[in-house]
Amino acid sequence: MSRDRLSSSLVLVLLLLLAAKGRVACQDGRLGLERAVELARRNYPVILAKRAAEGAAAAGADAARASLLPRVELDWQQTRGTRNNIFGQFFPQSAIPPISGPVIGEPSFGESAWGSGGGLIVTWEPFDFGQRQAERALAGRVVAEAQASLALTEMEAALGAADAFLRAAAAAEVVRAAEANVARMETFALTVQTLVSNELRPGADGSRVEVELATARNRLIEARERAELALVTLASSIGLAGEAVRIDVAELAADQAGGSPSEGEAARSQVHPLLLLRQSSAAISLARQELLEKSFRPRFQWQTALFARGTGARIDGRILGTRGLFPDTPNWATGLLISFAPTDLFRWRAARREEERLRAAEEARVAAARQSLQADEARARALHTSAEAYRSLAPRQLSAARETELRVRKR
């Protein structure tokens, strides 16, 4: 069998495989197409990572919803230290602990007293000009993007497993064809050698047929190698890398009529996960822009505190032993805190311009994805039409080949 005829046989096998509907189960320990796709969806490591990312995004959305609740904080501290104090002021910092009370006598570094304090403070923003609602909307868009990314990864894994299965099945059929070709060449070589031995054909014919037989055997070795590599790729695509798998292609060669989906069916079909992912990314950019628009606002915080302090250092200079181990002077306070930073206007304007550019880029990616998918659909329809034409001719070619084989054997 020549290389061109071998390639034609491979094309016919692939067309027969694509004509099947994929209703192949796992029989006698062999892996069917449907089972391969199921294993890919369940075991592929990238899918597991995407599912974890989706769970993290959902947890982030829950955290955004929890921002509506007031913030409650409890504090307690126990100290032992000196009571020395001085007049004056300095900027707030973290290295020097604050101290309260007037200057008393001469500073003493050796005297110390107990101190304690504890309290509860409740902080709540009664209104925020829609900022928290925008944060929750952004968290929802992030969840939608994670879900779209998971759907795209699942589809890619399923398509990869199906493609690997069909390639493995095609490689197995090529091995069968190569084996048949070797058997035919061996019979032909035996016939030619017999004729050469009886001096009915020249010796050059015998040498030529030996070369063709060696070539056929080499092609069989190559076909078996490709079949083994295809099985390795299939095992990796279904999350079973390194394990030996066997495939069942009994039902793939069934002659089943396939139809090309109409334009209406394509329009009613589910939107492609890649387009959903790009649209989700654009929605995230829009949500970030909306959140940024609501961020340059004053902040209103209602705070209520209940606290108590205790100290063993008295104002007359005495230090009372264990006094101060527990808070014994309670206080409470409530009030409205309004904060606004007008100098953030410059940073806010720059961030807004940046987000507008990012949103334009995401919208361009959406348009590019839509055009790419439309082109892929057009190519798929053209290939499907050609495949249907080849499939309709395959039974005639197979029947003619069988009839030719039968006549040759009779002759």
Structure description:
By secondary structure, the protein is α+β, with helices and mostly antiparallel strands. The protein is 60% helix and 11% strand. It has 8 helices and 4 strands, in the order αααββααααββα. The protein has helices spanning 3-19, 33-43, 45-65, 131-197, 203-237, 263-268, 273-293, 344-410; strands at 71-81, 113-124, 299-311, 329-339. A 4-stranded antiparallel β-sheet has the order 1-2-3-4, with no helix packed on it. Helix 4 (131-197) runs antiparallel to helix 5 (203-237). It is elongated. The chain starts with a helix and ends with a helix. Mean pLDDT is 79; it is low at 1-28 and 264-269.
Question: How would you state the average pLDDT, rounded?
Answer: 79
Distance between the termini: 19 Å
Strand tally is: 4
Biggest beta sheet summary: 4 strands, antiparallel
Low-confidence stretches: 1-28, 264-269
**Basic shape:** elongated
Main features:
alpha+beta; 4-stranded antiparallel β-sheet
Could you write a compact summary of the structure shown?
The chain is α+β, with helices and mostly antiparallel strands and 411 residues long. It is built from eight helices and four strands.
Topology of helices and strands:
Blueprint: H1 3-19, H2 33-43, H3 45-65, E1 71-81, E2 113-124, H4 131-197, H5 203-237, H6 263-268, H7 273-293, E3 299-311, E4 329-339, H8 344-410
Antiparallel strand pairs: 1-2, 2-3, 3-4
Helix pairs in contact: 1-4, 1-8, 2-4, 3-4, 4-5, 4-7, 7-8
